[in-house]
Design a protein that fits this description.
heterodimer, A: 437 residues, flat, B: 552 residues, 8-stranded antiparallel sheet, 8 helices, globular
Chain lengths: 437, 552
């Protein structure tokens, strides 16, 4: 293993070279990425930031901004160079030095954990009251094989933030690794109480019970969780890193943001982002279809349709566009056309319950009750918690004269929060009394 | 990019050299003998202009006795044009897999056409085993597209109906007798449902290979042997369709010690699975419970190659797997009843950070009884700002060797040409093709030649090679224990361990100088254990099962 001092010497050499350049009045030259193959909006942004930096090379904020932008776009080594430059320009005690060091450690993490840890040690020494630094440092120490040093940092983080599920989780995992199952149990129980959806915490707690000799209890802890195994892991509450990632304007990142906005119901934001994306990636059928869906959700189906059509022209199997077109046709009352689009959508995505429900609906409205019921039952199998498919199934069953089953479907729908229309229930009661009433 | 590439290289070189022991460099040598071997094989990933994801995943290889003459032959998997680009290309013009038969002079001769093994699918993984019980090795080829099954016997191969395996993107595959009925069943990992029309870009918006998380995941398959080498898909009833994750590595082994083989699946960027087999032959995932789903920090990693081996000499088997750049390769240490990610403490974390690991094997390079480790690396994504014109070169990375000290700790070492080479490394297979008692190595690479590394290390100790056989075939999943007085050397027979490959199906032991061989035991996949006469040093022995199969 390379000695830490030697590793740091390598970093120190780069920093010293930079310092010498500034002392002797030479403005350091910002690193310039080869942007020829980048998306235009990314390379233009980087060019602009370089130009701004060349006019104000003494401004640490510009170095940080450029570093964060490079970092966010995966240009990590160049980002590290910028953070070092900012650090050199910032006066001792300035809290922005914590930001620069924190980001520098992030940038170095992939290539050299030891140097990253040294940078963070310096950050913690100068600004000891920032829990994310301590948690990050603890992680790095663990990855460097020093559980004892990691434990110290996690405990410091926990003192500053007693509600840190992450600190409790990491401490519990360390105790478990050291064979201290009882200690681990206490810490992990606290972590799980704070982050009940954290699959990783749940798994660690299960292993702690197993290690403590209670295998059944361990299994029970795991079985009680429904989230994905690695979902809900408490993240480092990390505003600095978050700010950095926000600078990413590459199309994958924009798409991520657009989807998040759509998922959160922020449809106006989503529309802006999707329109940007459609300019950057005009041949991406997914993007076009999702823009169509957002417009439809915003009550502008006429604007949605051309986007759906463009998506289908690029990719005839684009399931969301086919689904959207189906919904438009169904609204117009063109049921055969709607059925065609839903079936096309299911060709690509056969396990989409919503599409089976929509197909069941249009079949029902065409009085094809048997096929409708089959589609609705498929939807219910794929999404057992879905209520509307059970309501529609009740209608299909009633039309087929299977009244008892229809009532069962009505009750199943109710259990799932969906109520059949009163008119239908009245008609069904006339055919067959409601069981249990 | 202006300077960082060179800086990274320097840093990596310093990191690597710090662990290298000059003494080991002189003593341990894996020499590139490709040029004189008769093996000429260039992997063809197809048209790379749109960065199709299957192209960067690479293809595997197998070392086994294909013609029944007692020596090892080499089967190399080829890709070629992607299935979606094949319209109008006559099948005969597709490159096809190649079989190189070893000749009496030790050189290899290309004999694929004559032997019937020239599968022309877009190849990924390979598994070898006698599935029809005729004594000859049979071959399963996992393809992006229709998989293929070949029955071998009498030195030639016949393509069988493989429709049961379906047409999808299969990756790793492994044979084992999971249901204890004495024939070999098959687990096939499914990777992704590819979308050839999807163009992807890197973090800086440059065209690059897609991330696996941008595509739907393919299902895995468990196929039960009907007893005659034909298979039925039992995935649904066995319960393995409960999860659908992008599999790249498969291991069959009784992880829970109940006499029923379990299946470990290494997934790319998703929690790994350990399918624990219940008494009724169904499976449920126990990876989280046993601590082998996520790393120490509770994160899933991009797992590729996977291995089992007793790295710390405590007579149980530990799990190792290779991962993406900036993630560590991970070693899960068996603690009895569960596993602990102990990678950092064992010296395997930091040296792996700059590289993306794929093919890997444990072997005893030093012949001191302790397991050492080889792995090949090769990126799957470009660093931002690297020139597109560089082709595959920008994905090339060095291979690595690590020497184990028997306590579980490893130190990086240079071992001749093997660690000096850079390639987009994918498959790594081991086998003693020159029958000199140590293991030789074959490496495959995306868009590069297959390369043969002969083990020419000087050694002081001896060796023992054991071929565990049951029901007239090799026994994947068996555990072989060689006793040296108070010390037990444990080797798991998992030919398909690693990435997309099948190694020689033997348990290989280095025997330290002066050590006395006092016993040989084999724990068969159904839990039955048998003791055999201690083998003489420097011998190769076949150990056949005497005990009847356990009735379930």
């Amino acid at each position: 293993m390379i000695p830490t001092a030697r590793r740091y010497g390598l970093l120190g050499g780069l920093v010293l070279a930079f310092a010498a350049a500034t002392v002797f009045g030479q403005a350091p030259e910002p690193p310039v990425a080869d942007g020829r193959n980048m998306e235009p909006q990314v390379s233009l942004l980087l060019d602009r930031l370089v130009e701004e930096l060349r006019t104000r090379p003494e401004d640490p904020a510009r170095w940080l901004e450029y570093g964060e932008t490079l970092h966010a776009h995966g240009l990590v080594s160049d980002a590290a160079e910028c953070y070092r430059a900012a650090l050199e320009l910032l006066p001792a005690g300035d809290v922005t030095r914590l930001t620069a060091r924190y980001l520098l450690a992030h940038a170095l993490r992939g290539a050299d954990r030891a140097v990253a840890a040294e940078v963070l040690e310096a950050a913690v020494a100068e600004h000891p009251g920032y829990p994310p630094s301590l948690l990050f440092l603890g992680e790095l120490r663990e990855e460097l094989g020093d559980r004892t040093a990691a434990e110290v940092r996690y405990r410091q983080a926990l003192e500053l933030d007693p509600g840190s599920a992450l600190a409790l989780f990491r401490l519990g995992s360390i105790e478990l690794a050291m064979g201290e199952a009882r200690e681990a149990l206490a810490l992990l129980e606290r972590a799980l109480a704070l982050a009940p959806d954290a699959g990783a915490v749940r798994a660690a707690l299960a292993r702690a019970w197993n290690a403590a000799g209670d295998r059944d209890r361990g299994r029970a802890v795991l079985d009680a969780g429904e989230a994905r195994p690695d979902a809900g892991l408490p993240p480092i509450e990390d505003p600095v890193h978050f700010r950095m990632t926000e600078r990413d304007i590459s199309s994958p990142r924009l798409l991520e943001r657009a989807r998040a906005a759509r998922g959160a119901g922020r449809l106006e934001d989503a529309e802006i982002l999707y329109r940007d994306l459609a300019r950057i990636r005009p041949r991406d059928a997914d993007v076009l279809a999702e823009l169509g869906a957002v417009l439809d959700q915003r009550g502008r189906p006429g604007e949605a349709e051309p986007w759906y059509r463009d998506a289908v022209a690029l990719d005839p199997g684009q399931a969301l566009a086919r689904f959207g077109l189906g919904v438009l046709r169904a609204r117009e009352g063109n049921l055969p056309a709607a059925e065609y689009e839903f079936r096309e959508s299911l060709e690509s995505r056969p396990d989409e319950p919503q599409t089976h429900t929509a197909l069941g609906d249009v079949l029902l409205r065409q009085h094809r009750f048997g096929p409708a019921l089959a589609a609705l039952e498929r939807a219910a199998r794929l999404d057992p918690e879905d209520g509307p498919s059970r309501v529609l199934a009740a209608v299909a069953l009633a039309e087929l004269g299977r009244f008892e089953e229809a009532w069962r479907a009505v009750h199943e729908a109710r259990e799932r929060g969906a109520e059949a229309p009163e008119g239908f229930l009245t008609a069904l009661r006339e055919k067959h009394p409601e069981p249990g009433r | 990019m202006r300077s960082p590439g060179a800086r990274r290289l320097l840093l990596s070189a310093v990191l690597g050299l710090a662990g290298w022991s000059p003494a080991a460099q002189e003593r341990l040598r894996l020499e590139d003998v490709t040029a004189g071997s008769g093996v000429r094989f260039l992997h063809d990933p197809g048209d790379l202009s749109r960065f199709p994801l299957p192209a960067i995943m690479g293809s595997g290889a197998a070392l086994f006795d294909a013609d029944g003459d007692g020596d090892l032959d080499l089967y190399l998997i080829q890709a070629g044009s992607l299935p979606e680009d094949r319209d109008g290309i006559p099948a005969a013009e597709l490159p096809g897999n190649r079989l190189f038969l070893q000749q009496p002079d030790g050189r290899f001769r290309d004999d694929a056409g004559a032997r019937g093994l020239s599968d022309r699918g877009y190849g990924a993984g390979v598994a070898v085993g006698d599935v029809n019980g005729d004594g000859g090795a049979d071959v399963f080829v996992a393809n992006y597209g229709q998989d293929a099954l070949y029955f071998g016997g009498g030195g030639s191969f016949v393509r069988m109906d493989a429709s049961v395996f379906g047409e999808r993107w299969s990756s790793a595959a492994a044979f084992c007798d999971y249901d204890g009925d004495t024939d070999l069943d098959l687990y096939v990992g499914g990777y992704l449902v590819n979308d050839p029309d999807r163009d992807c870009v890197s973090a800086s918006g440059e065209p690059d290979f897609c991330s696996p998380q941008s595509l739907p995941y393919e299902r895995d398959g468990l196929f039960r042997n009907r007893g005659d080498g034909t298979f039925e898909d039992v995935s649904g009833e066995a319960g393995i369709l409960a999860e659908r994750r992008p599999a790249l590595g498969v291991l069959c082994h009784d992880f829970t010690g109940d006499g029923r083989p379990d299946i470990y699946v290494a997934n790319d960027g998703e929690p790994n699975l350990l399918w624990e087999q219940a008494e009724d032959g169904t499976f449920s995932d126990a990876a989280l419970f046993l601590g082998v789903a996520l790393n120490a920090q509770g994160r899933s990693e991009a797992s590729m190659g996977v291995l089992l081996g007793d790295v710390d000499g405590d007579a149980d088997l530990d799990l190792f797997m290779t991962h993406l750049r900036a993630q560590t390769n991970t070693l899960y240490r068996n603690q009895g009843g569960g596993y602990l990610d102990d990678t950092a403490a064992l010296g395997l974390a930091l040296p792996s950070l700059p590289w993306t690991g794929f093919g890997t094997r444990f072997l005893d390079l030093e012949m001191d009884g302790d397991l050492d480790l080889l792995l090949v690396n090769g990126a799957v994504a470009r660093e931002g700002g690297t020139p597109a014109a560089g082709g595959l070169d920008v994905y090339a990375e060095p291979a690595q060797a690590f020497l184990g000290d028997g306590s579980g700790r490893f130190e990086e070492a240079a071992v001749g040409d093997f660690t000096g080479a850079r390639s987009v490394g994918r498959g790594l297979v081991t086998g003693d093709w020159d029958r000199d008692g140590d293991l030789d190595v074959v490496v495959t690479a995306v868009g590069g030649p297959a390369r043969l590394f002969e083990n020419r290390s000087s050694r002081e100790g001896g060796f023992v090679v054991v071929e565990p056989r049951e029901f007239s075939r090799a026994s994947p999943g068996a555990v072989v224990i060689l006793e040296l007085g108070g010390r037990s050397l444990v080797r798991a027979l998992n030919p398909e361990a690693g990435y997309l490959t099948s190694s020689e199906p033997v348990a290989h032991f280095g025997v330290p100088p002066g050590a006395e061989i006092t016993g040989l035991r084999i724990r068969w996949p159904d839990g039955a254990e048998e003791r055999f006469e201690p083998p003489e040093p420097n011998t190769r022995v076949a150990a056949s099962r005497q005990a009847p199969p356990r009735v379930r």
